[in-house]
Write a structure and sequence with these properties.
The structure holds two protein chains of two kinds. By secondary structure, chain A is mainly alpha-helical. Helices cover 70% and strands 0% of the residues of chain A. Chain A is built from 15 helices and no strands. In chain A, helix 6 runs antiparallel to helix 7. Chain A is flat and about 110 Å long. Helices cover 66% and strands 7% of the residues of chain B. Chain B is built from 13 helices and eight strands. The two termini of chain B are 51 Å apart. Classes of the chains: A mainly alpha, B alpha+beta. Chains A and B meet through helix 3, helix 9, helix 10, helix 13 and helix 14 of A and helix 2, helix 4, helix 5, helix 12 and helix 13 of B.
Chain lengths: 388, 397
Amino acid sequence: MTMAEGDLAVTQLAFVRHATIAPQPPPATMTGAIGWLRANLLSTPFNIVLTAIIALLLAWAIPGLLRFLILDAVWTGVDRNACLESVQHREIGACWPFVREWLPYFIYGSYPIPLRWRVDVFFIMLAIGIVWLLWLNAPRRELGTVYFFVVLPIASFILLSGWAAIGLQPVDTVLWGGALVTIVVASVGIVFSLPLGILLALGRRSHMPAVRTLSLIFIEFVRGVPLVTVLFMASVMLPLFVPEQYSPDKLLRALIGIAIFASAYMAEVVRAGLQAIPNGQYEGAMAVGLGYWQMMRLIVLPQALRITIPNIVNTYIGLFKDTTLVFIVGIFDLLRTIEVARIDPKWATPVTSTTGYVVAAIFYLIFCYGMSRYARAMEARLARGDRH
Amino acid sequence: MSSELSAPSRPARVVFYNDPKFRSIAYQLFLCAVVVFLVYGAASNAIENLTRAHIASGFGFWNQTAGFDISQTLIEYSARTSTYGRAFWVGLLNTLLVAGIGIVFATILGFVVGISRLSRNWLLAKIAGGYVETIRNLPLLLQLLFWYNAVLKALPDIRESIVIGGVAFLNNRGLFVPQPIFKGGFGAVEIAILAGLVGAIAFYAWARKRQERTGQQAPVLRVVLLLTIGLPLVVFAFAGFPLGFDFPQSGRFNVTGGVEILPEFAALLFGLSVYTAAFIAEVVRAGILAVSHGQTEAAYSLGLQPRQALRLIVVPQAMRVIIPPLTSQYLNLTKNSTLAVAIGYPDLVQVFTGTVLNQTGQAVEVVAITMLVYLTISLGTSFLMNIYNSHMALRER
């Protein structure tokens, strides 16, 4: 009976829609800026409270930071009076004239002023090497590798420490300082840790028990102790282990310590890459008659290093930050020069230390963040799969 | 044809120096010879250099009087009577103290930041991301120097101390807080705490076993809280509140009484916690992301509440991924505590590898002992980690 009634109702309908209605736009509260706010900031009561707290925190922190760095900062002056609240009778932010006066020291340390062009040339050569190596579509990249790992170290050593025979006045390493030393230490770590790390990683996976054991002991020992103690060992024990006349200078000792430390960490990174290469690759290489070194150089390492690039760069970031530790064994790296400058009586104010540390922070942030962006980009590229 | 097949194919004669077995042995012998030669050369040079510099060798210095002061000592120590050996223990305990507290703080902060980075609240996720990116890209030493020189040393001096709640004083010499004094009868409270802990663990084990057997749940949380907090409080009240405080008194030049928390300690603790927390946050984030979304969905489809799904499904699986890298972060924190030497906190390196080495000149022994301590901590932890990993590894069928 209900069926009959239903049929009747249909036939009596005056209007039947023949086409579907165009979909209505979603409610205004679900789209656009308001929708985004509701979904991402105000979805639950808890989230509303959280957002409010963070907004208050930001409202307090960002203007404070801006005021310190720019609005209240002192831009001109010749000594501490420019940056003293009691003299200027206003809120004082960062003391930039202090940085302007000390900047050459932060960059070159005590490197003789007429010879500083040599440091500039070194910086330019290093920059060319880095771009050549990192830019994946650069021409002749294999040449770039040779340049970076062979030509650059020798050329910069001659350039920076001088060579009387070709008319470059020798400069003792105790005069080196500032960003120059930071970059030299980091570069030496970077240049030496990769080849040494590869050798150690291969050694640890070797079939020869003596090679394997020695590599294992070296890697685990160095990774098990703090860098500070490795540096202490390099600076106080190394001079004992060599005949007195060959005692290496202070900077070289620290460089040896950093290179040893970095290569042990690099070895583990490379080993992880080697483990990711399927056995078939090794077997295939052996089947076509390649020897051990040919197999590694032509088949295994190119693939292993390729997938390890992000981790290698991450190790380099750690290494770059760790260069600050040479401070502890008395090397004048960037941080040490800032420590020296900030207690200069001519500029002693309550804001001098903070200003100095801000300079250092900007320096390290630029380098480390740059490297981490590069690692991230490489990771994305590898995840995409290389289609060349 | 058959004769061809049956002809035995003799292995090709290889010249002995092309034989892989011979080569491998030769390489290894050569390597060992080089290592032995290097070690021998280093040792003989060291002996020669040490005798020329008239530096004693051996561990005789261990029992000599140290003669220097240490600003923070957890065990009894005095410059005039204590030995270098005692100074070593003071330094080691200071290292362990800052590392232990630092690990707790870093873990809490790291988990909060790591989970915040995955929050659906956009602002919170971005702030957490900014924290991680900034802190991870700045050298720890720079951060320590900043906290120490720019923040703590810039606090007002003693006469203008910041008073917190009328009982604690904060100035550029440190934070002075009341010291608890345990009177007689506090022993009963200590026993109660111990008994409460044992009882709580036993109850938890019993409740779990019963649930596995019968499916009945016990009010574990309530009972555990009652045993660990309630029981000691009741005993404390019955014993007549055997606890007093020694309040710090602020004078013109000094603060007397109370416990002093050194600015060096505070800066190191703060710097290490903030720095390591950024790394722990990344570990936690990676661990949570490693649990596939299907797991959560499956839990919901079984009828679990979001909270239960998190507790019973997501967290246990995430922990499997989180714990190994988390321990290596703990080790990093412990190793990084050696940066104390830069701001003058008396840790093992500052006291032993710094002062004791300078006074005795016995570099080989002192550096070797220091390295041995850190090696023991590192290798011991990785040994425990390996046991844990083999215990936790997925048992696939």
